[in-house]
Task: structure prediction
Amino acid sequence: MGMAIKLLACTRVWISRNSIKRYLMKVVIFLLALLPLDRLVWLGFTDGLGANPIEFITRSTGTWALVMLCLTLVMTPLRLLTGSLFWIKIRRMLGLFSFFYAAIHFLIWIWLDQNFDLAAMVKDVIKRPYITMGFLSLLMMTPLAMTSNHWMQRKLGRRWAQLHRLIYVIACSVILHYWWHKAGKNDLDTVSIYATVVVLLLCCRIPVIRSKLSFK
Amino acid sequence: MRFIDNTILPSDITPKGVFEGRRELIKAAAAGSFGLALAPWFSREALASNPEKLAATLNPAYAVKDELSGYKNVTTYNNFYEFGTDKTDPFANAGTLQTRPWTISIEGLVKKPVTLDIDALLKLAPMEERVYRMRCVEGWSMVIPWDGYSLSKLLSKVEPLGSAKYVEFISLADRKQMPGVKSNILDWPYKEGLRLDEAMNPLTLLTFGLYGEALPKQNGAPVRIVVPWKYGFKSAKSIVKIRLTEEMPKTSWSQFDAREYGFYSNVNPLVDHPRWSQATERRIAENKGVFAPKIKTEMFNGYGDQVASMYSGMDLKKFY
Result:
């Protein structure tokens, strides 16, 4: 009896220690993921955004939305490689940060670029392929962000996983958005790197490769 | 009794250089007391990699009244692919450009082909200061005080032949001085061109400086073209050759994609770039808030009364 109680107590301590550790890790990752935004605010107050601040903020938030998207896509390969579920626990937060930066990116466009001129916006979305792709990407990200909570996950069951496979399509449309924008000035070095990363991450989803990655 | 030796002048006791240096010091101290008001001026001094002064007289007939973009913005936010594709690359990398010795050769369909040294070019005509709008094809614009003289003054000296219809400008492309030339982003050297009447228009400026100083390297030192009614890329930087031709010259951006970049590339809010609208622009100005709305782009960048007649009867949607 005494032994059993002791064991139970030990387990409880182990659980709470582990959950505190996990909680702290999440806080640290949350704060790290906010750094790109902190940086923009800091640069804004110290006159560091350069000659064209709006362009700087737009490009920076766009880039960070893509970086967060790539990090989100890294979590599954990491789980496969390490066998740890920890990665899946922080995946949602990274995905939401990707949406967060994409939303700022979009808001700056409709506010400071289009001045909330709805007609001009619609025209641009239809007429310009790179804007179409950017807009579609955000549109597809929205239901994923909306259904990212546990409640929706439970409610949707198997369909949740199916819905969230949309992230693979989004990764491609985001790269097209970036690529077509940069192609105008033939400045494709940076976007080529991101495209390569995304292709590699998507390859990790191919069953043959996926099983090779799996932690034995 | 006092003895004054009139043969000893104060300037004999204090060497001239030191004496003048002292005056500079006093001036600087006085300026210091106005600290804040003069801060932009001092930051300009600190930024200038080539603080060589140019004595230019303002030509009020060619000076727009818009708020200036500020020396710092003009010299740190540039498209000059020879030094990298990022807007801040030219400022960071252009230090390696050798601007002396420098010559421009003027050749092709002219009666008197000539190669002119930069110092000869500087003295060829009186230096004017002109305040021009500069509209980039990417959708931003600046207002810049340039120093130079009308290109027509140089072209008249070489006497274009009757058969000459176009003027081609060729920029320097030297891998040793220009790190961006190693990439194959464009077909180097950078080439631009104008129709002869456009080149002879008094607005077209052979430019040697900005803000009363020799051109900073990132802005196309030591000599460039400025064509204010066309998108910025038409204004070739660091030019080494001017060639007069009968055929329309092949220009770099148009060779890259003729559908996106036409030969004329006049600023035109009604003709969009295939990837973005040209109806509005973001004006970069010294005291403009970050959240200031964009402004409407004007036909011919607002220079219509001086240039529109050159295009009368032309379909500007076709000849973009």
